[in-house]
Amino acid sequence: MKYLLSNDKYSYVNEEDKAFIIALDAAVIGLGYAHNGIEEHAENDGFEIRYYRTGLKTRKYCVKSYFRDGVFTFRMLFTNIDKHREYIERAPDFIKQTFINGKSVCRRGTFSGCIGQRSDKCSYKKTYTIDGILHEKCSYGAFVFDNPCIENIPQYMELLTTFFPGKKRTK
């Protein structure tokens, strides 16, 4: 990964973000995930790294990093959030906030992928309850971690393995 970020076209990524990306890459790869390197991302006119579970017939992406206009964004993709409600309610604030903040609230079909879908059947809508409050987010932009810190990578990996525990081993 380090060699990918040394290319001049990534010179706008600051050193702190580069260090985080390299450490995140090592941690996620260490859990058995893979990626295709840094790819162009047409929708946000920047670049992205998408991590996916290996060993599956269909790629299931779980972590995405975006680079656009000198800004680095890190997010995770979650399903079955209510199943992990207790974990989220006890999580450190920097993790819990991504689930309860007002960002990426479902706007009932205003995202272009939602057009033509009934809002109650929208495949982009994530509905879940945290601390007794119902949340509805558009999965297209939800679960972004603001100001990710390299020191928090172990907690991010714990969150990842909570939602995606990996293959169950049989004896």
For the residues shown, what is the average pLDDT? 81
Series of secondary-structure elements, N-terminal to C-terminal: HHEEEEEHHEEEH
Name of the CATH first level of the largest domain: Alpha Beta
Indicate the overall shape. Answer: globular
Helix tally? 5
Classify the helix fraction into a percent range.
Answer: 25-40%
Helix and strand content put the structural class at alpha+beta
Q: What is the gyration radius calculated from CA atoms?
A: 17 Å
Count the domains: 2
Tell me the strand percentage band: 15-25%
Task: Determine the N-to-C terminus distance.
Answer: 35 Å
How does the SSE layout of this entry go?
Blueprint: H1 2-5, H2 15-30, E1 33-35, E2 39-41, E3 46-53, E4 61-68, E5 71-76, H3 85-90, H4 93-100, E6 125-130, E7 133-138, E8 144-145, H5 153-163
Antiparallel strand pairs: 1-3, 2-3, 3-4, 4-5, 5-8, 6-7
Structural commentary:
With 171 residues, the protein is α+β, with helices and mostly antiparallel strands. It has 2 domains: 2-77 and 144-163, TATA-Binding Protein, CATH 3.30.310; 81-138, no CATH class. The chain is built from 5 helices and 8 strands; from the N terminus they run ααβββββααβββα. It has helices at residues 2-5, 15-30, 85-90, 93-100, 153-163; strands spanning 33-35, 39-41, 46-53, 61-68, 71-76, 125-130, 133-138, 144-145. A hairpin with a 2-residue loop joins β4 (61-68) and β5.
